[in-house]
Predict the 3D structure of the following.
Amino acid sequence: MTERTFSIIKPDATQRNLTGAINAMIEAAGLRIVAQRRILMTKEQAEDFYDVHRERPFYGELVEFMTSAPVVVQVLEGPNAVVRYREVMGATNPADAAEGTIRKAHALSVGENSVHGSDSLENAKIEIAQFFDEGDIVG
Ligand code: CMP
C-alpha cells in the first residue's frame, strides 16, 4: 500500500553535509521525497515533536541537539513507507544498526543518530501535519 512517512535529517548530518548522501539512500530504497524543507527548529517545535519522551532522562539533551543546527524535514512516499524507511534507517543506536543502513553508515551515537522516521502510520500523519500543509506535498 502506498503510504507517507515523516523524516528528519538531524543536525549531526546536516552539519557534515550528508543531506545528499542520505537522500540518495532514501531514493535508492524506493522512497520518493515528496516534500522537503530545511529549517532551524524552535525549542517549542522540538519540545512538541518529542512530547512522548518528555519524562525520559535524555529529553533536555534531545531538544537541545535538535535545535542546535538546521534540520531537513521531509515527507517520504512509497509502498509501506513507514516500515520501509525504518529498515533503511537501521536501529536507533548505530552500534546495533545493520550494514547498508543510514545509521550504520553515518550516525555518531544513539543521540546523534542522523535521521528520524515515524514509528507508525498514525504518528506519521501527526508528524507530517506538524511541519507541512497538505498543499506543500506533491506526490
Ligand atoms: P528519534 O527516532 O528521533 O526519536 C527519539 C530520539 O531520542 C531517538 O531518535 C534518539 O535520537 C533519541 N534517544 C533515544 N535514546 C537516547 C539516549 N539514551 N540518549 C540520547 N538520546 C536518545
About this structure: The CA atoms of residues 68 and 110 lie 16 Å apart. The chain has a mean pLDDT of 98. The first strand starts at residue 2 and ends at 9. The pocket of adenosine-3',5'-cyclic-monophosphate is lined by residues 53, 58, 61-62, 92, 110-111, 113, 116 (CB under 6 Å).
